[in-house]
Specification:
The complex is a heterodimer of chains A (about 200) and B (about 650). Chain A is mainly α. Chain A is built from 7 helices and 2 strands; from the N terminus they run βαααααβαα. In chain A, helix 2 runs antiparallel to helix 7. The chains are: A mainly alpha (about 200), B mainly alpha (about 650). Chains A and B meet through strand 1, helix 1, helix 5, strand 2 and helix 6 of A and helix 6, helix 7, helix 8, strand 1 and strand 2 of B.
Chain lengths: ~200, ~650
């Protein structure tokens, strides 16, 4: 091993950093890219298959119902308020704010998961009826796995936050969880437009 | 280095006591359980490399069987059914179990050392990735030995692979084995990107990164954007087969060409995912063995990056025979020819480097020269098949087989062999034999040309791929025999390599820290490197740190040694930014991989597999992420037990 000469001391550097200064933030971003690509492929397939049909939805298939999916889309958007609140609280090390934000979001994620079940019914088509149904179901399922994963992670964080012990870096972790939440809920809006609204004007 | 805050230090810490404490904190105790729990990038990198090489040998044996079958017309060594499985499993093995994983594995081993880090960014994810990869490989081979090996080719076109024409489970094995390997590749890509972005030694700005690290960064980004396509499309196929969706069933509005588009949108970048790290090997070897930095660093980096981008615009050239609109054909022909430009720039930069340097013709350098010859041949036939008119003549013939073997064997296996000879001393502490290495090189070089060059002619004569035999009247017998003799030569070459490794591991000359007098940081530490890689994190002041800093190596101090403490730097300039507590060894990544395996394998048989496997996987992920052992870090507690 080479002889060395010390030129700097890094001991004063902080241990807890947020956003792009944190490794976990970049890791989360990496998984967002992967999952975003997966959802993009579902939508690409959906519109590619559109070309094989004279009408969309195909003949003898009802258009998707809109009530529950629209409630879901609204809920997804609104859920960003408590998550953003928790996110900001985490950077202030305000543990009570993070706790309540995460508790609210866990409840919201449970509601969204239940609504997802009814969204499948709202499609008015089975996955094995035709390619249209297959593509719509696949899109909802692919996003559903992200929803399930985020429910599990948010719930686990909530338990940790209430049970303790809590370190500073857990709050940075909570902030990274918020980043994933913004993605998971935000990406649903174009998917909702594709699967539920586009059959009305295509 | 202006990028590094200089702080006065009172006294230099006692080197030996620092070393002892680091050893205690980072070392992996002997025994099976610590091995299973290991999160050390070197330990995982080594097992990744060994596993990939074992799969390479298995894939090679399958190729040997195919060559034996084709050695003469109307041979009956392998029947058509077995032959179908052999060429499919050969292709899958070489692409999914060898080429991508081995490049990733070498990257996972070397990148942290080259950038002066203690480990990869997410070491448990690294362990998980390896276990999932291993499970996928075992799954494919167990199925193969049970006569359920995939038999529809490595790109498994529908409708052949659909439920109507491929009943049974063979294609499901194909789809799921790919899912395993893609998850492993994606995990590695995220790790490599974050490691390269955030764990570089202070002062290693982006424009001082070794070219191999650039190559791995570009490769990881390509994996990130390409692998989800194959992972998703194989799931769509699995669903068509398991729950009767209709993605690829034209009778219900599905589309066979959807498969080809989605597959090749992954499949073409895949070639460059394999090639780009190999270009990185070549740059490192050329610099060391000419003893000068590679000519045109900015041009080299821009070439690698542009290969990354352009490779996503070529996929339709695999589909010229499907009736693509003419404008589309012209676009993809143009793009396919365009990618020769950055590849050519790199070749010229290497030639310029060699030209101005004084090359040492050691074995790694021989493999680089072999690479240049073979890759240029493969590149030229690539430009030929980029032309639609020519492509339609040779589509699905042995000409294409010749082309992509020149590209992949020449472009990836040769640089990889060079890399093995080059970094073996770092990994094991011993040199490989030069004498055996030269024999190894010439046998492989002659063998590859003997095997694959005649295939150009066979293709032009119309011999189709993937047909288990041919009639004597075709006149293809003698060229096929020649190719088979070439294959035997390759087998001898690989055998010699294995012997060289086995002998050198025990009796090879001791390597020392820097046997080649190379310039990058991995050569600044011992061979093999200690568990913590470097006693102090080095500081980098140029592109060739070990050549430019010939005296003492500048380092930083201030990381804790009693716990696993790592330094985080900024993305562009690598300024020290924060410190990070590194994860400890854990059995949970292995358990999560087992849960993943249960999920994927049961899904082949029933959709209820999701109901069984998902909770198991979530449970394993919870165990993985749940914080343990915090008492040592009390100063950062926000709140004790609530």
């Amino acid at each position: 091993m080479r002889a060395t000469r010390i030129v700097a001391d890094v001991s004063p550097l902080p241990r807890t950093v947020f956003g792009h200064r944190s490794m976990m933030w970049w890791g989360t971003l990496g998984f967002i890219v992967i999952e975003g690509t997966t959802l993009f492929i579902c939508v690409v397939s959906y519109f590619y298959l559109r070309r094989n049909f004279a009408t969309w939805p195909p003949e003898h298939v009802f258009r998707p119902a809109l009530v529950i999916p629209t409630i879901q889309a609204g809920l997804m958007l609104l859920s960003n308020i408590p998550m953003r609140w928790a996110d900001r609280a985490s950077s202030r090390m305000d543990i009570r704010g993070v706790r309540s934000g995460f508790a609210i979001c866990t409840v919201l994620a449970v509601i969204m998961t239940v609504l997802r079940w009814f969204e499948f019914q709202s499609l008015n088509v089975r996955w094995d009826s035709n390619a249209y149904g297959s593509a719509a179901w696949a899109t909802l399922t692919a996003h559903g796995t992200l929803l399930l994963l985020e429910l599990a992670e948010t719930a686990a964080f909530t338990v940790l936050l209430f049970k303790g012990p809590i370190e500073e870096r857990d709050l940075a972790g909570a902030s990274d969880n918020a980043l994933y939440w913004y993605f998971m809920t935000g990406v649903w809006i174009p998917l909702y437009v594709a699967v539920f609204l586009s059959p009305r004007f295509m | 280095v202006s990028a590094v805050p200089r702080v006065e230090t009172d006294e230099a810490p006692d080197e030996e006591s620092v070393r002892r404490q680091l050893e205690e904190t980072w070392h992996q105790p002997p025994g099976l359980l610590p091995w299973l729990k290991s999160v050390d990038h070197k330990s995982i990198g080594k097992r990744y490399i060994v596993t990939a090489v074992v799969f390479f040998i298995l894939g090679g044996l399958e190729a040997g069987m195919m060559r034996a079958q084709l050695a003469r017309p109307e041979n009956h060594l392998l029947g058509p059914d077995a032959y179908n499985q052999f060429f499919t499993v050969h292709g899958m093995t070489m692409m999914f179990l060898f080429a991508v994983p081995v490049m990733t594995a070498v990257g996972l081993y070397l990148v942290p050392l080259m950038i002066g880090a203690r480990n990869v960014a997410f070491p448990r994810l690294n362990a998980y990735g390896y276990w999932v990869y291993l499970a996928g490989g075992l799954f494919l081979y167990i199925s193969f030995f049970l006569n359920t090996g995939p038999d529809t080719g490595w790109f498994s076109y529908v409708p052949l692979a659909g439920p109507e024409f491929s009943p049974g489970k063979r294609v499901d094995v194909y789809a799921q084995a790919i899912t395993f390997t893609e998850i492993a590749a994606l995990a590695a890509a995220v790790e490599l990107i974050v490691t390269i972005f955030k764990n570089r030694a202070p002062g290693m700005t982006l424009n001082r990164m070794p070219l191999f690290v650039w190559a791995m960064l570009v490769q990881a980004f390509m994996v990130l954007f390409a692998m989800p396509w194959v992972a998703t499309v194989t799931q769509l196929l699995a669903m068509d087969r398991l729950v009767a969706t209709h993605f690829f069933n034209p009778a219900e509005g599905g589309d066979a060409l959807l498969w080809q588009h989605l597959f090749w949108f992954f499949g073409h970048p895949e070639v460059y995912i394999i090639l780009v790290p190999a270009l990185g090997f070549v740059s490192m070897i050329v610099a060391t063995f000419t003893r000068r930095p590679v000519f045109g660093y900015p041009a080299m980096v821009l070439s690698i990056v542009s290969i990354g981008f352009i490779s996503f615009g070529l996929w339709v050239h695999h589909m010229f025979a499907t009736g693509v609109p003419q404008l589309g054909q012209s676009f993809f022909t143009g793009a396919s020819m365009m990618i020769a430009i950055p590849s050519g720039i790199q070749i010229f930069c290497w030639i310029a480097t060699i030209w101005a340097g004084r090359p040492r013709f050691s074995v790694p350098f021989l493999f680089v020269l072999g690479f240049v010859v073979l890759f240029v041949i493969g590149g030229v036939t690539g430009v030929m098949v980029a032309s639609v008119a020519f492509d339609q003549q040779v589509h699905d013939t042995y000409f294409v087989v010749a082309h992509f073997h020149y590209v992949l064997v020449g472009g990836a296996v040769f640089p990889l062999m060079g890399a093995f000879y080059y970094w073996f001393p770092k990994i094991t502490g011993r040199m490989l034999s030069e004498r055996l290495g030269r024999w190894n090189f010439w046998l492989l070089f002659i063998g590859v040309n003997l095997t694959f060059f005649p295939m150009h002619q066979l293709g032009l004569e119309g011999m189709p791929r993937r047909v288990y035999t041919y009639l004597p009247g075709t006149g293809w017998g003698s060229l096929n025999l020649l190719a088979t003799i070439g294959a035997v030569t390759i087998v001898l070459g690989v055998l010699l390599f294995v012997i060289n490794v086995a002998v050198s591991l025990r009796r090879g000359a001791l390597a020392g820290d820097n046997p080649w007098d190379a310039d990058t940081l991995e050569w600044a530490t011992t061979s093999p490197p200690p568990a913590y890689n470097f006693i102090h994190i080095p500081v980098v002041e140029g592109r060739a740190p070990l050549w430019e800093q010939s005296g003492e190596l500048p380092v930083v101090t201030g990381l804790r040694t009693d716990v696993r403490d790592v330094l985080i730097t900024t993305l562009l300039d690598a300024r020290p930014d924060s410190k990070h507590r590194h994860p400890t060894p854990s059995i949970w990544p292995l358990l999560a991989a087992i849960a993943t395996t249960i999920l994927f394998v049961t899904l082949i048989f029933t959709p209820w597999g999701a109901v069984i496997g998902t909770p198991l996987l979530l449970l394993a992920l919870l165990g993985w992420g749940w914080p343990h052992g915090r008492e040592k870090w009390e100063q950062q507690m926000v709140e004790q037990e609530a």
